[in-house]
Amino acid sequence: MESEGGDAIEEGRLLPSETPWVERYDFLKRSGYLLRPRYRPGWVAPWKLKPGLYSSDFEEGISSSRPSLMDAQRLSDGRTVYLKHTRKDSPEILIGQYFSSEPLRDDPRNHCLPVLDVLKNEDDPEYVILVIPWLRRIDSPDPASVRECVDFIQQTLEGLAFMHEHKVAHRDCAWGNIMMDGRRLYPQGWHPQQWDFYPNGKVMRGDEPSRTGVGGVRYYFIDFGISTKDQDEVLGIHGQELSPELSDTVPYDPYKLDVYILGMAYQHFLVERHSGLDFLLPLIEYMTPQTPSERPSAAEALQRWNKIAQGLSFFTLSKRLFLVTEEPESSLSRTLKATSYRIRDLWWTATVSKKPSRPLL
After folding, report:
1. Per-residue pLDDT of the chain (361 residues; tens, 9 = 90+)
2. Predicted structure pTM score
3. Whole-angstrom Cα distance, residue 321 to residue 318?
4. Could you give the angle at which helices 254-265 and 146-165 cross, rounded to 10 degrees?
């Protein structure tokens, strides 16, 4: 399939996942959102107009492979946003609007993805288009230090406790459904469909930016498509994490499910992918018993985490992380890298204050 898609792009054809967005182009423009030139009706690939050119020479050669998700420019202020085509009865509409309303949207514990707009198209009555912020994957780049992992856990546990306080269960809060506001890391932006490219389609070069060096980033839970509100028991087997209680016939507690899924997110995203994070294992074990009734609430997990975090020294926090997939190197080389990072971390924490997040709305 990959080569077929590549052939289609080189031949100047849109992918099947892209053609519905061409049909929505005029509606979206009237609604205040402009798609990239590739999706304008009648578009002709510029690399087909002259011999010797290739799709990789042009931003318009960057395609979108997800039929339900597209990027656009908000005409009122020029900001990049994402457009999500979803059924009009999806729970993420009401839940997203609920957490985007005042006073909840201004609560610093609120880490739920805001809904910026809901577009209704008469030609597509069973669906709506959600306008949501432009975010970045949390592994692009990965956390570079223990300090950055601590911040990630603090924000996500705080966010889950806040969500549960308002009787909303996410039910799929795996690490693939947590994203970050990357605008501080990449002030020039990045391409919405190719995250290692600039918006103009040129490849990014140079060292990866540091979360600590820019004053921190903010994390958000996304994709509330199977979430529930005011339900203490649910049914269903969907989600990224194969949690033990999932069932279509036996009701289970969605809040305890969330605690398990987030604990496993820490296991999969942090512990399994980085060396030196064994201090997280007691928290993960506390959150992930196989029996739901033995798990803590999100608020209790946050309290346990706060005690662990308070016991971490500056020396531990400034420790550089190494991905387990990194190439083997000598102990001297690794020591030099760790020491160099520790010096930079000391400089950043002394000179760069943690900045308040810029609003996404």
Report:
1. 344 567 889 999 999 999 999 999 999 999 999 999 999 999 999 999 988 999 999 999 999 989 999 999 999 999 999 999 999 999 999 999 999 999 999 999 999 999 999 999 999 999 999 999 999 999 999 999 999 999 999 999 999 999 999 999 999 999 999 999 999 999 999 999 999 999 999 999 988 999 999 999 999 999 999 999 999 999 999 999 999 999 999 999 999 999 999 999 999 999 999 998 999 999 999 999 999 999 999 999 999 999 999 999 999 999 999 999 887 778 888 889 889 999 999 899 888 877 666 666 6
2. 0.94
3. 9
4. 170
